[in-house]
Write a structure and sequence with these properties.
- With 71 residues, the chain is an alpha+beta fold.
- The chain has a domain of 28 residues.
- Helix content is 34%, strand content 17%.
- It is built from 3 helices and 2 strands; from the N terminus they run αβααβ.
- A two-stranded parallel sheet has the order 1-2.
Length: 71
């Protein structure tokens, strides 16, 4: 899913990095963020930790979130 989102953003002219939340890239190095993860008994733990760790930086920049789930 992250690759599909990145592909659309690139097609719109954005420069995009796809990184795993566990890598903890500091959002200060970016002008916007998209954070996504699967729903596994709640939002994925690594993504949740990332958002909690960088809450202040993410709230000060354009940020989008997505969740994937299977039924």
């Amino acid at each position: 899913m992250a690759d599909a989102v990145a592909e659309e953003l690139r097609a719109a002219g954005a420069e995009v990095d796809v990184r795993a939340p566990a890598e903890s890239p500091d959002p200060a190095a970016y002008s916007a963020a998209v954070v996504g993860a699967p729903m596994i008994m709640g939002w994925h733990k690594d993504a949740l930790r990332y958002v909690e760790r960088y809450r202040d930086q993410l709230s000060a920049m354009p940020t989008a979130y997505f969740v994937t789930a299977c039924r």
